[in-house]
Automatic annotation (TrEMBL):
PANTHER family: FIBRONECTIN TYPE-III DOMAIN-CONTAINING PROTEIN, SUSHI DOMAIN-CONTAINING PROTEIN 1. Its main location: membrane. Keywords: Disulfide bond, Glycoprotein, Membrane, Repeat, Signal, Transmembrane, Transmembrane helix. Gene3D superfamilies: Immunoglobulins. This is Receptor-type tyrosine-protein phosphatase U-like Fn3 domain-containing protein. It is a single-pass type I membrane protein. It is found in: Membrane. It comes from Bugula neritina (Brown bryozoan). InterPro entries: Fn3_PTPRU (IPR057598), Ig-like_fold (IPR013783), R-tyr_protein_phosphatases (IPR051622). The chain crosses the membrane at residues 309-330. GO terms for cellular component: membrane. The keyword Signal applies.
Length: 334
């Protein structure tokens, strides 16, 4: 019968647990009859080396010690955020000890193509890393793994999409500086993307002050400015094939339906913001949506109704009669 003592050590110095036992940490100690056993020591400590020591009544001998490297057994937790041409990666160690990590390897590559180009980097700590030079509106897969002298962990991966790169100069514009009634016109410009063709243009209406409630559709997400705002809604989605180099005249609030979105008439004497987005449908069916930075702002004055027209007509008639009477009086004095 002997005692089984399993020791772990976080660094490379003093690796002989017989001569340098004080540098090692005991994580398992049990009296055994059998020569073989199976012990899970993974939650024990962050360790680079593991030693299995058989202790007999006569003490330890070097021939009875096995020292072996302990590779990371689990992949790091990976988080990836994308902009138009970069992937920003951050990682965290697992909640359970995972061995001593000497370095991390990050890799990103196009997920939907057979292109051999990829971005890869080795770092010695968990610092955030950015891998760039990807095209906009592309599907990209990124991975991370932990490495030490004994081996490497399984690969952790995450797939996402680089954002659409829009030019602010392509944003729609107001047709007229002064607007009144329940509608107003904008000119939708043709949007040019570097490596993709836009599928549609989405327009979102946000009323500055109102108590009305509208049901929002969730197939296309709203801009962050619309969060928790019941008066923010998608009013139209226009197919890109309708917009050529000369532009496309669109009347916001014309009461028509555009790809299942009802372009509801607006309210006079109100301030509105119009957000524009560009959509690109990916090969796997996923739809990318990118909003322009600044919305179109417009104030709708009240339109002149029937009573207004009658009042103007009466005022004009009274003015005309006054002018006629003035002319008659002048002629009589002469």
């Amino acid at each position: 019968m002997f005692w089984v003592n399993i020791l772990t050590k976080p660094d490379a110095g003093n690796v002989n647990p017989v001569d340098d036992k004080s540098y090692w940490n005991s994580v398992y100690y049990e009296r055994r009859f059998l020569d073989e056993w199976n012990v899970d020591i993974r939650p024990a400590s962050y360790s680079l080396y593991v030693a299995v020591v058989r202790e007999f009544s006569g003490g330890l001998t070097l021939s009875e010690v096995e020292v072996f490297g302990y590779a990371p057994y689990d992949g790091p937790s990976l988080s990836v955020e994308f902009n138009t041409n970069c992937a920003h990666l951050t990682i965290q160690d697992p909640t359970q000890p995972n061995g001593i990590v000497i370095e991390y390897q990050y890799t990103c590559y196009y997920a939907n193509t057979e292109e051999g180009n990829y971005q890869s980097i080795l770092v010695t700590d968990k610092q955030p890393v950015s891998l760039c030079e990807f095209r906009s509106a592309e599907k990209v897969t990124c991975s991370a793994k932990a490495i030490n002298s004994a081996g490497e962990s399984p690969v952790t991966s995450q797939t996402g999409y680089t954002r659409i790169a829009v030019r602010q100069s392509d944003k729609a514009e107001l047709k007229h500086s002064k607007n009144k009634g329940k509608t107003f016109r904008i000119t939708v410009h043709q949007v040019t993307l570097g490596n993709k063709r836009p599928d549609s243009y989405v327009f979102v209406v946000q009323k500055e002050t109102s108590t009305s409630k509208r049901k929002k559709r969730s197939s296309v997400h709203l801009p962050p400015e619309c969060d928790l705002d019941p008066d923010c809604y998608i009013t139209a989605e226009i197919d890109s094939s309708l917009v050529d180099s000369d532009g496309y005249d669109f009347r916001v609030g014309d009461g028509k339906t555009y790809q299942d979105y009802y372009n509801a008439p607006l309210e006079p004497n109100q301030d509105y913001k119009i957000y524009q987005a560009v959509t690109v449908k990916m090969e796997d069916g996923f739809v990318l949506v990118e909003y322009y930075d600044d919305p179109i702002t417009v104030h709708l004055d009240a339109a002149c109704g029937l009573s207004c027209i009658v009042a103007i007509a009466v005022s004009a008639f009274v003015l005309f009669i006054g002018v006629v009477l003035l002319v008659v009086l002048i002629k009589r004095r002469r």
